[in-house]
Amino acid sequence: MDLQDNVLIINDLNISFLSAQKSSKVVKNLSFSLQKGTTLGIVGESGSGKSVTALSIMQLLPSKKVKIEGEILFSDAGKTIDLLSLSDKTMQYYRGNRLSMIFQEPMTSLNPSLTCGEQISETLRLHLKMSKLQAKKRSFELLEEVNLSPPQKFYQSYPHQLSGGQKQRIMIAIAIACQPDILIADEPTTALDVTVAKNILLLLKDLQKKYGISIIFITHDLEIVKNTADHVLVLYQGEKVEYEHSETLFSTPQQSYTQGLLSCKVPQSNIRTQPLPTVNDFLNKDKNISQITLKTTISSTQWLEIAKKITQKEPLLQVKNLSKIYPVGTQWLGRKVYFEALKSISFDVYENETLGLVGESGCGKTTLGRTLLRLIEPTKGNIFYKGKDICALNNRQLRNLRKEIQIVYQDPYSSLNARQLIGESLVQPMKLHHIGTSDKQRKDKAVELLEKTGLEAKHFYAYPHEFSGGQRQRICIARALSVEPQFVICDEAVSALDISVQAQILNLLNELKKDYHLTYIFISHDLSVVRYMSHRVMVIKSGQIQEINFADPLYENPQNDYTKQLINSLSR
């Protein structure tokens, strides 16, 4: 391969994780190239080596714990530079300046003690030697470019004051600040709703065209890869499965694994296949591919009948005129300024129902989910669970309620204690809520939950860092179920997962719902997933309910203009 046509060439890349006991190879003899001004999409299951490969290019893997072999060749003004041969000091010049990266987890990638504007300005001052005034002015422009307006507000905001989607856009602003030669985007739209994701993708395309940036795009959304990538690299267990032009790969995939990935996507239709096909179906040599489609299908009419029957019961949860108001600062003459995150919301949830909750980033979805648990205290209104007003409960009563209502958080990386064994994270809530009569009984139940959620008994003694994102989300689900709840709030529970693992988790949630008679509020920005999972769907904008209806009627005949806009964004 000729570096005249390529900005990056990787030859025979091998990456091994080192420990006192053994060496584990996670990327094996990987070779590919990135052409100048083009986009390479990298897809594969969670744990396939996508992010590790990207981190090796940026030289962000810990040298004492990771062994990297092969060549990572970068074209620098006609010269060929092997990034693996550079010293740490030299690599600092390239990293963030010539090579930039948008990380997968904006929640843990931003410095909580600095304003967002300071973090953008720092990059500009460090690499482009701008003055404070120049950096601030350019930071405002970058904030406008990533659709964060007014820029003054977001420049002065701290990460904890922003939604997940807004934090991701701050990360993108930092990454494009120096107009890099190569931009590695590791799941850059994971936390974004469809309308914002569409704008971000258009932004990246515009920047690529304007500055000739070459992009490596890692994502679990195959539609994004199909619509944005020139070439696609498919990884499985650290090895290259297929490496083709995008159009060729999507029209005629050659390998069973690729066929499985393409079949795992939740369909944008009113026909529900249960369970969803998974990659393992296609890798199972005992099955004929034609047999994989012979699963239970539920028509729109059947699904509507099921939903109507559920909503004829008494509500399990009733929310009446719920509001949440935050003080955000003080204006001239001491006048206090408030932000109303939830505005007099009222709705019901029925036993065994899955109520989908959708809306743009920052609309109040997560605030609503946490307010229902009183993790955030409501300002006004009532929340009735089984007829009892949650808002009137004291701390002891509220602790008992938490046994019945649980939440699976959006970020499986930061919601597990890094210093706690997985088994301890499952057993500890059982002890707190007096489930089980002995440590042995609680351990047995924890192992049973791990196995029920697709993990193994040996994982009881493992730590969170030993698992992929999909595995960590399974652990979070097992932890939520450890206290035997009846009501579970899934807050973007599959947003951080690749398409094949997403199908497995959705199947798991439906299976657990049936086995344990659970009721769900399912929060997601993925409209196809919400439609597939939900009996009814509630649409929120700016803290207010725009529309609530049975799933298929809402998608096929939306009554509200905002709902129409969201659904139209599906065809991106």
The total of beta strands comes to 22
Query: Whole-number radius of gyration?
Result: 24 Å
Q: How far is the first residue's CA from the last residue's CA? A: 34 Å
The computed structural class is alpha/beta
Task: Summarize the biggest pleated sheet.
Answer: 6 strands, mixed
> What does the average pLDDT come to?
89
Helicity, in percent? 25-40%
Count of DSSP-assigned helices: 23
Spatial order of the strands forming the largest sheet? 6-7-8-3-9-10
Describe the overall structure.
- The chain is of the alpha/beta class and 572 residues long.
- It contains 23 helices and 22 strands.
- The protein has a six-stranded mixed sheet, sandwiched between helices. Strands 18-19-20-15-21-22 form a six-stranded mixed sheet, with helices on both faces.
- Helix 4 (116-128) crosses helix 5 (132-145), helix 17 (422-432) crosses helix 18 and helix 18 (439-452) packs across helix 19 (469-481).
- The radius of gyration is 24 Å and the shape is globular.
- The protein starts with 5 loop residues before the first strand and ends with a helix.
- The model has no long low-confidence stretch (mean pLDDT 89).
